[in-house]
Amino acid sequence: MNSILLPSRGRVTISEVASAAGVSKASVSRYIGGDRQLLAEATAERIAQTIERLGFRPNQMARGLKRGRTRLIGMLVADILNPYSVAVMHGVETACQRHGYTLVVCNTNRDDEQECRHLAALQSYNVEGLIVNTLGHHAGELKDLQNRLPLVLVDRQMEGFEADLVGLDNTQAVRQAIDHLQQRGYRDLLLVSEPLDGTSSRQERAQAFRTQIAANPSLKGRLLETNGDFTAKLKTFLTEPGPGPKAVFAANGMAALTSTASLRELGCRLFEDIGLIALDDLDWYPLVGNGGITALAQPTEAIGITALEYLLARLNGSRSAAQRMAFPAELRIRGSTQPRIS
Amino acid sequence: MNSILLPSRGRVTISEVASAAGVSKASVSRYIGGDRQLLAEATAERIAQTIERLGFRPNQMARGLKRGRTRLIGMLVADILNPYSVAVMHGVETACQRHGYTLVVCNTNRDDEQECRHLAALQSYNVEGLIVNTLGHHAGELKDLQNRLPLVLVDRQMEGFEADLVGLDNTQAVRQAIDHLQQRGYRDLLLVSEPLDGTSSRQERAQAFRTQIAANPSLKGRLLETNGDFTAKLKTFLTEPGPGPKAVFAANGMAALTSTASLRELGCRLFEDIGLIALDDLDWYPLVGNGGITALAQPTEAIGITALEYLLARLNGSRSAAQRMAFPAELRIRGSTQPRIS
DNA sequence: GCGTTGGTTGAAACCGGTTTCAGGAGATCA
DNA sequence: TGATCTCCTGAAACCGGTTTCAACCAACGC
User: HTH lacI-type domain: which residues (chains A, B) (predicted)?
Assistant: First the structure.
């Protein structure tokens, strides 16, 4: 028993606890590792008291080293300023907490290089699994990573990359939007989307919109991206002749913000002059225009929780084939699509 | 030289690199640790190639163990669904990235117990420093923690707890708001705040409001918290007689949301019927009412960056006394406080 | 030719835990 | 009484790195 114990960097270590309790490191380790049935009642009690008295907290890094379990989950978020991402992250965090994991979040700022760097960093911290909201440009790295760790995609998938995916049922959501608009008397629709840069969810929504409009002869539909001089492009749509009342379908929260701002700028009143429905339901939707913006809410909390549960399932090895969960959106009708009385 | 090398858990280790390159672990360690001037040119080159060939990534956990440097920074956020917190976090992350740190974020969900648990967790992961947006109820734990790690508070301070603090100059911001409202002809002011539960920034804003109203005989001022039946309380304010035009001052983004919603509910038009100014500047402020909501924007990015820089200064030991940085707010005038023509 | 010096290198201890393995103390059985 | 079987425990190896320390080699000065 060595009597000289240097408290390293101020923190109590397992060796100090061991010698203070008059037992071996192994016993203390067994105690904190939950192998308590291996210990005699009296020993366990003595260790418990010593730990309490010294305020010992095991060093998770050291534990992870030998054990392979760091209890860390990594999450890669494309844009942390996007409320959708934060909401999903909140769900993931809730689930992590529930299962005793800690979440490490990295924000790529929609930057390819940062995505790469952060993937490497998370790996080097021995996260046990990854939840990825990817830009979709690093199939190689991701495939490589998937061989090492369980990995679940959120919202966005990737061409030629087999992995669990949790997100929205985009086709169904677009159908709900179009159906609702049509039912409310709109005939000339404009899908507003952030730039179609390869982000799969945006592509899917755009594609579903095109397909469904093409299949519906009574409707006309166009697609506008929010880059360039969006207001000017929007104005063109507003002045163009069409088959009937016009409505905008914003493909996500950002598009809703841009659309609403541009419509205001053009002096165009929501509902009175034009219909509006938006994917995502942000907390300010009820405050805008005449009675708020009609929304298709994503179950973000559920998406986050499910993503983590898929990950845990893989960690436990209880799954093999890539699985996909597409949640339905929930329609929340507000003033921007009130029944047209015309 | 041991020829049997089991690739542990699929990842390449320093020993494998060492034996593949025909050098010792020590040399490889020196190479990745940046002590390259200790190595002969040829050796360094050989190691570089081997690392590249094998795709070796050093395990940060293992490095941190002996070295004491994990290059991890912990951040405790009171409410991740609050855009203010996310914006600050974005600043912190930017700065972390710039200095080669990785950020671990924990959300306490405004829960005391979770705050405690997360503080313990972050500590057990050997973060090198902490940025804390605390609830303000755990002076004991925090003091204890401060003895072990550098720690910087964001937005919220704590009674009897000396630490670096980065946030808004609340007194000055309240002065800007009151001055602006008075200048625009408003005389009967209502400060709307989330519940004064001890959160220091809320208290400071409320206190500054009371003080400044008391010192200004031409103004009347009341304070309302957003709990209970807020709309009813707001209605009372609106119908009460006062010394002149009424205006609401929302003490943060949440209060702005609640206030705007209740005003709508009461059929009260912004600007025409009542003035509104809000602390924080959220992206939807321009879209509401007649010309948007006037805002006092916080420099959230700068707050986050500064918080991390203070932390790094402490990590380098180049600071002793607790320091405080109070940023000014920036007034952004919009429709909700247009000049009163009356 | 020999002691010094400085630049490189590897063996081994170490960080703070976990895990294997062997051994000692009782209890049970023949 | 001795053999066997549990149950509990500690020594030591190990995880993947870092760091100390001593040794080696070539060049240098005298």
Answer: 12-67
